[in-house]
Each structure stands twice: as C-alpha cells, then as structure tokens.
Amino acid sequence: MTTLFDGPHFTFRALRPNLRRAQRLARDGAPATARIVGIRIMRQTDDSPDLHEWALDVTRPDGTRFRAGCRQRLTRARLQQLRLGDEVHVLVDARGGALIAGDDDLAHAALAHKVLKDPPLDGIYDENADLTKERRRSMEAQIVVRAAEPVSVMGMPTLNVHLDVDVRPEGQAPYATTLKRELVPFYAQHLVAAGTVLPGTARPDKPSKVRIDWPAAAMASPGNGVPAVLEPPPAAPAGPISATATSDDWTSRGLAADGDLGERGGITFDQWVAVSAGLVRERVKPANADAYAARHGVASGTWRDAEAAWNAAMMRDPRVGARYGAAFEAARKRR
After folding, report:
1. Is 76 a domain residue?
2. Following DSSP, what letter does each residue of 246-277 receive, concatenated?
3. For the segment 101-150, what is each residue's pLDDT rounded down to a tens digit?
4. pTM score, two decimals?
5. What CA–CA distance (Å, rounded) separates 195 from 202?
6. Which residue from 109, 127, 138, 243 lies 20 to 30 Å from 273 (Cα-Cα)?
C-alpha cells in the first residue's frame, strides 16, 4: 500500500489521481491484449523522471476495443523487447485505463506509472532524436551501417555503440566515418546490423557531423519480434530474393539471401557496388560521378537515376542493404 511518504516527491506525487489509478490498475486490473501504436520519449527532468509514454490499441477478452495511454517506466530488459506495433499484455480497468503488464514487480512500481487522459499520437516521437534544428544546416543523407561495437562503462553494457558507417549525402560524394558512442534508442536496437540503411542528415562543411533519424528508421522497419542486434546475423543457407521484397524478412536467412537482385535503372547490383565504392576510394567529385560511372560500363547520363533506384531498393528491403554493406566494404578496399 502506498502512503504519502513513499517514493520521490512523496507529498505531491502520491496524491495525484492518475498515480493512484495506476496503483489500482497494477493491483486489480483485468488482463487484456494491446498493440503498441505510439511511443513518445521525453527529455528527463527533475519534475518528470518518467520518460516513456505509450499509445495502446487495447482489445478486451470480449472483443471490444479502445485506445488508451500510459506513462510507464519499464526495466531496461523489458524495454529492449518492445517495438512499435508489438502486441503486449496489459491490465485494464472499467474506465478505459491501461498499463503494460509483464514487467518485474509491477505493483511496487506504481509511483512510476501514470494513466494518461490523452494517449500519444501514433508513430514514434523522440525528443532526444529530434532533427528539426539540425536539418536547417544539414542535407538529407542515407547512412549505411558497416560495423557496430557495443560500448560498456566499468564493465556494464550501455545503449551506446560505436558505428562505422558509409554516408551518402544527397548530391554529394559518399564517404566513410565513425559515429562515436551513438545512443541507439530501445525501439531501434534491431537496426544496427551491418548493411542496414538508415535515414539521417550530414553537414557539408563537417563530414563527421552525421545524425541518424532513429524514429523514422524504426517507423519504416519496426522490427516486430526481432531482438537487439549488435553484430551481423550468423550465416544461413542462401535462398532466392525477390526484387519486390519488403522489409519484413529480418531473419538470418532473409538477410543472408544470395539470389539475383536483377537491375535498377539499367545497372546490376555488382555495377552499383563497384562504382559506389570507386567514387569513395578515388575521391571522385560529385560533378564527375557520371563520367566515372560511364568508364565502368554504366550508360552515359544514367548513373544518378540508377543510383537513386538502388538506394530506394535498400530503403525498402533490408536484405538488399545487408548485401550492399559487405560488398561495398570489400570493393572499397580493393586497389
């Protein structure tokens, strides 16, 4: 039982109705299922230490549905399991309140859980990954993960990783760089596998100033049912890959598929990789990219459109990106 003297800011927090309602839900709520349709992450302050808000499409056992929202502090282990679109167990009350169930010792965490009158909007909004200001002085870019190394502090794992990436700014020559101690949000932990193509920004005057749009990447490929990945998946028997495949197949077999990818914009996958790597390796200026591609078998005047077509294929299908990452790195090192 919670008293006025339990938890942080005891006098005021324990009296707030949405906290008392959350405590009753944790104790007496009825089980139901829900789909996570919205995630909002706020910057932490002394007055608002509970960072995560959830929008839930709830289905009761009798089939009735309603939308609910909660602000709920979950354990790190539990967060690592959650993705946008996941189905979760919840506890609900007769008034349409809900809490995510299955966390450790839910009843004793009541002061960290709140029932929201207005759930967050659909999708992902992360105040820590907001690129609105950065876009005013940067250009859009695609960031291709080549390798990821977890970062630990005093032997304890963190959500930070060192990311070796290839950056492809719009209208500029691609280049390689390393993002030190990149904070990968829990909802995007499945996106750090080698070959993954991520949206983001790059500054033309500061090549090392690269930002990844994690919310947009996770909304495009939520990764439902996919665990956190900090290294490429193990090899698996090769299988055919369709040129119209979607980004749903994040299994090791799907990522390792080795079929014919066909052509995009009149060039093959191998031509695209060879020219892209050569542009970086030989530091070709953007204005000379088409002429360089023509010298390597690409029809004159078609390189920009062909490159855009293959980049679009990578954004739609992570398996294309997985193959590109390994092939590009090997081609870039050739002399």
Report:
1. yes
2. -TT--SHHHHT--S---EETTEEHHHHHHHHH
3. 865 555 555 556 888 989 999 999 999 888 988 988 899 999 999 888 88
4. 0.63
5. 19
6. 138
